[in-house]
Amino acid sequence: MFEPVASADPRLRADPLADDTIARVLGTWDDGTPAMSRWDAIALVNRELAGWQTNGMLDGWKASLGTPAPIAAALEDYVARARRLPDWVDAGKVGCAEAVFVDMSMLSCTLLFCASLPECYVPADLASVLHTAGQLEQHTDYRVRSTAAMIFPVMLRGGLLDPAGGGVAQVLKVRLIHATIRHLIVRGNPGEALEHGAVIAPLLAEGRGLHQTLFARGWDVNANGLPVNQEELAYTLLTFHYVFLRGLRRLGLGLSKEEEGAYLHAWNVVGHLLGIEQELLVETMGEAEALFARLQQDGRALAAARYAPSTRKVGATLYARSTDPRPALAHALMRAMQDEIPLRALKAFPVLLTRRLCGKDTGRDLGLDGRVSLFSRAVFALGMGVTRTVDTLVRLVCPGFSISRLVTRIFGYRLTTRFLMDQTRPLKLPEALLHQVDGAVRGWDLDPQAPGWMNAIEQRLRPATPAPEPTVIKEAA
C-alpha cells in the first residue's frame, strides 16, 4: 500500500482508502493470478457493485465466486472498513432530516435541477471532468439519474441507519467510482502522482467509452490538483445540503434552525462515508455559507485564469468560441428541463428560477445571464412577487398554504417522472432503487400541508406517474 505525502492543500488530497482499493484492483498482481486488462477489471468491479442493494448486504460481504483473488480481497477489505458509520452520528437528527426530505418531496427534485446541479458546475476542475465525461453536455439525464441514485437512497426513511435501507451501499459505490475516475485520469494511484508531481500527457483513446476517454485525457497535477479531490468533494456535498437549504429560504420556505442543523448532520454522515475529511464538514448554516463562498471564489479564480472570456452573439444560446465548458454544461441542463415544459411562454422558467436560486454570479459563470424575453421576465417576476405576498398573508390564517410550494411540486413531479421513472433512458435505475423511488413518489401524491383544493389543482396539472416494470422473482436453482 502506497503511503502518500501529506499535503496542507485539500486540492492535493484525495481518498487513500478508496484509492488504494482501486490501485489493488488495477495494479500488478503478484500472487500468480492471471493478468486482466484494466477495462475487464473495471467491468468486473462494476458487476460486484451492482449487487450492493441494501445496507444489510454489506455485513460480512464476500465477492462472488470466480472473482480473481486480488479483486475480491481489495473489495472485501474496502467494504469492511468503509461501511462504518462515524461515532458522532445522531439517529434523531438523521430521522429529522429524512422527514424534511419526505415533507419537501417534489420540491426537493426542483431544487436538485435548478440549484444543486447548476452550482456543481462552477468549479473549473469539476466542470472540466464532467465535460470530458460527456455526462451532461451529451447525456444530461445520465448525470441527473446517477445523482438521484445516491440522493434518494440516502434521504428516504432508513436510508443510512436501517439494514433494509440502501443509502450506505449506494454511497460506497459512488466513493469507488470517484476513486476509479482519479486512477484513470492520473493513470495510477493518486498518491504516486503527487509524489512525482506528474504532468500526464494526453493519449489516443483506446475506445470511445467513458473510462477510455478519462484515461486518455491528460492532467496536470501541479496546476489542477488531483481529480475529484477533497476540496471538490466538500464543495459537491455543500450543493446537496447547504444549497438545498438556501434554496428553501429563497423560496420563502425556510426551515427551523433545528431542522437545518439536522439536515446538515445527515449529509455530514454521507460525507464521512464518501471519504471527506472531518475538517471539511460543516455543522451550521453560517459555517456552510462561509466555506461555500470560499470554495466558489477559488473556483472562479481558477476559471478566470484558465478560460478565455465567452464570445457571445445576440440571440445565441451556446458560446461556440469559448473554451470554458461550464456554459455548455448548464445549457444542456436547462434545455433538458425546457423540453419538459409544454407551454412556450414558460420555457424560460428553468433559467429564471436557476438565476433566482443561485444568484447573479453563478448565472454569469454558467452563461445563464443572456437575454430572456421581457415578457418571460415580467411573468416570472410578477409571479414570484405575487406568490411571496399572497403566501405570507394567507399563511396567517392557513399555515399550510403555499403557491410557491404548489408550483415547484408540479415542476418537480414532471422532472422526476421524466428523468427518474422512465426506464427507456440511457441509465436505468437498479430495480430495487426504482421501486423504492416509485414508492416514495406515489407517497408524495398529496401534499399534507396544503388544503384539499390545492392538491386537486396539483393532481390536475402534473403528469401521471408511470408504473414500474413488474419484479420477476426467480426461483433458486
- Please count the helical segments: 21
Helical fraction:
55-70%
> In terms of per-residue confidence, which ranges show pLDDT below 50 for 5 or more consecutive residues?
1-5, 311-322, 470-477
Number of folding domains? Answer: 1
> What do the pLDDT scores average to?
82
Q: Report the biggest beta sheet as strand number plus sense, adding barrel if it closes.
A: 2 strands, antiparallel
Can you list the strand order of the major beta sheet? Answer: 1-2
The tally of strands reads: 2
Q: Which structural category fits the helices and strands?
A: mainly alpha
Organism: Massilia suwonensis
Protein name: Oxygenase MpaB family protein
Domain ER-bound oxygenase mpaB/mpaB'/Rubber oxygenase catalytic: 142-388
Pfam families: MPAB_Lcp_cat
Question: What is this structure, in a nutshell?
Answer:
This is Oxygenase MpaB family protein. The chain is mostly helical and 477 residues long.
Description:
By secondary structure, this protein is mainly α. The protein is 59% helix and 1% strand. It has helices spanning 16-26, 38-49, 69-82, 91-104, 106-120, 124-133, 140-155, 167-186, 190-196, 210-216, 221-224, 230-250, 257-273, 285-306, 326-338, 349-358, 360-365, 374-394, 403-419, 431-443, 452-461; strands spanning 199-200, 219-220. It has a two-stranded antiparallel ribbon. The chain is globular and about 75 Å long. The two termini are 40 Å apart. The model is unreliable at 1-5, 311-322 and 470-477 (pLDDT under 50).
